[in-house]
Design brief:
This protein is an alpha+beta fold. 34% of the residues lie in helices and 16% in strands.
Length: 73
């Protein structure tokens, strides 16, 4: 698994607009874009992706106490 990290302030023009289209929101100069490249195939188990899923969830703010309400449902 490979992680690609880019500072938004260093991404220009069409590249930045493309990323904004992919993520569905404008990007700010004080942000980073982090992309994980993973190979998933018949030889891989779903459990092999759990670490990446958890890291993504934490970066998205799921460790925020406000998210505790969603565990109640």
């Amino acid at each position: 698994m490979e992680s690609i990290i880019r500072n938004v302030k260093d991404i220009e023009g069409d590249d930045r607009r493309s990323l904004e289209h992919v993520v569905g929101q404008p990007l700010r100069d004080n942000q980073q874009v982090i992309i994980k490249v993973m190979t998933i195939g018949p030889q891989d188990e779903l459990g092999d992706t759990y670490a990446a899923q958890m890291e993504s969830a934490m970066r998205a703010g799921w460790d925020d106490p406000a998210m505790d309400d969603y565990n109640e449902v």
